[in-house]
């Protein structure tokens, strides 16, 4: 005897027995338990209450009520999609915006040009790496003079300073004053690297200034295209320049 039957027998209650499945209903499957029936019934009543609430809301709704989502929404493949409003800009407003864009780009370009001029004034462009080296041509009358030519003697300086294209003092100056500037090879190498970095920065700024100039030209071209004057494209737009149009001449008052 199980513990449940012993407990029921002691309390004098009739023990609960699970109802057996009749042989005639076996083809219909197992009988539903009381707990499962309650869950299914609660779910059914919950859905019915939600439907009644929606029906009441629909009946109480004002048929003349209007809100903007009615005209901004549409049904696509059974899904509500809100249409994004298009930007409405008049030609005059577009021209004004183009003008503001040109002013901004031009301001940046002018600031970049000033920085370029400042860098050029600080650097010696004589020994810029990547540029063609300057040539100093000497003229002689005979081949003997060419064979006997000594560049240090001709420039009146010491042989150690011949390769310099700047700060190359003469022997007379060296006798009166000491050589100014760095003479240590390590220090000279460090200064050369710093000079190279400055030239790289200058090159980047020059390229940026050219790019801003091209951008300003393209913005101006797009601004001119807003005019309704008849025009014909002469040259396509490239990365280095804007498109070129030929406009019909119109006399203006």
Automatic annotation (TrEMBL):
The keyword rRNA processing applies. Belongs to the UTP11 family. Residues 7-17 have a biased composition (Basic residues). Keywords: Nucleus, rRNA processing. The keyword Nucleus applies. GO terms for cellular component: small-subunit processome. It is found in: Nucleus, Nucleolus. The lineage of its organism: Eukaryota, Metazoa, Chordata, Craniata, Vertebrata. GO terms for biological process: rRNA processing. Residues 1-32 are annotated as: Disordered. InterPro entries: SSU_processome_Utp11. The gene is Utp11. This is Probable U3 small nucleolar RNA-associated protein 11.
